[in-house]
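User: Modeling request: complex.
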Amino acid sequence: MIIDSEDICPIVLIQVMRAARESKDGEKIVVKTRWESVVHELKKWCEETGNEYLGWEKDGEKFVIKMRVSKKK
Amino acid sequence: MQKLVIFVSNNSLEALYHALTLALSARALGWTVKVFVVSQAVSLFIKGSKKKFSLPFFARLFLKWRMKRLKITDAEKMLEEALKENVEFYVDEVGLKIIGANKEDLLDGVKLAGSITFLTEAKGADVVVSL
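Assistant: Request completed. Predicted assembly structure:
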């Protein structure tokens, strides 16, 4: 699932939470954002929620962050 | 489940923005979130009214323009998302009466509560923030 968002961090977090809710175990979520803080916040979010943070890269103006959903908590 | 209780007594845009930011982030972590709103800040939760922030007219205009230019999500959208994600908002009845509004004027999902409700919720919370 790809989330390409212009919104600020807390809205992106809510979008990721909703995507994770709808995803199956092991499914990947990719977030594209121009806010650098989202990179750090999603890393923390994964640690807190038991999902796997796969890293990030820069693609032009946007930060691309990858995560794997884990339903085994 | 962890619980965050936020107390908003300041009707500035900053206070509401910080409250909504914390509320949404806590919901993203799966926490229960309860927001208590008192004094003039209650006006921010009235249906269909223009939000009355304690900022001078030109400062408010400038801030709106900057936020639009930077594509920063506005407080209304954040409030809408918070209500959708079951953030519970409680407003003070006295504050409501002072601004000449009634329970029926409140946004859907916003409830009335007093200090005992706040104290008991705060007592059982993991994090309490006052803005």
